[in-house]
Amino acid sequence: MRGRFITFEGIDGAGKSTHIEWVAARLRERATVVTTREPGGTPLGEDLRGLLLHRKMGLETEALLMFAARREHIAEVIEPALARGDWVISDRFTDATFAYQGGGRGLPRERLEVLEQWVQGDLQPDLTLLFDVPLETAAQRLANAREPDKFEAESRAFFERTRAEYLRRAAEAPGRFRVIDATRSIEDIRVTLEEILSSF
Ligand code: ADP
Ligand code: TYD
What we know:
Phosphorylation of dTMP to form dTDP in both de novo and salvage pathways of dTTP synthesis. One of its GO terms (cellular component) is cytosol. It catalyses: dTMP + ATP = dTDP + ADP. The chain is an alpha/beta fold. 56% of the residues lie in helices and 13% in strands. The chain contains 8 helices and 5 strands, in the order βαβααβααβααβα. The two termini are 16 Å apart. Bound molecules: adenosine-5'-diphosphate (ADP) and thymidine-5'-diphosphate. The site of adenosine-5'-diphosphate has 15 residues, from α1 and α8. Adenosine-5'-diphosphate binds next to α1 and α8.
């Protein structure tokens, strides 16, 4: 039987990475679980991640490299795992490109839809957990946590647009998305995650 594909999304500092290993551990009671991330997830993809997170580049170039890394990730990791019956959890996937390159940077959505169709065909996550917080909360969490990369150094307006595009994608595909109020404590969020996973 084919495995299931779960993605974690949210603006930087929302808290998604905090929960990935915990969710993976819960799901390992039910299946073999592969955890991975974007951009990245393959040796080539991790090299591209280094460029994407630290080098200045044109907007179209950035979007194309995101999808190039994703193509490799799908072909080398995601599809083979799902075909084996493993479950795949990815820290970000295509919704991030719509949110950051589309919403944040302003690349027309129609361009991204063409690339999405080309690179993924019918592949979509079975479940997307969107960790949603106001920008102030995300910024406060990041300020205490780490040195900003290229995206994390972006403006408040950029993240307003990024968050809005995430919420628009969620409204467009309500069967796939669960929007999580991530302003709450880690323990409270885990209770919600437990509920979502038990009915998935
Ligand atoms: P993301 O992966 O969404 O960028 P992280 O999971 O790395 O975010 O979390 C960013 C920072 O916020 C980390 O220092 C983390 O410990 C902290 N954090 C995560 N979730 C919460 C929470 N629910 N309440 C308070 N702090 C949190
Ligand atoms: P992230 O998972 O936040 O890494 P970390 O938690 O280690 O900082 O992802 C790295 C950055 O890449 C993040 O700021 C969002 C950005 N990104 C895009 O702009 N477009 C994309 O398609 C993806 C997958 C990520």
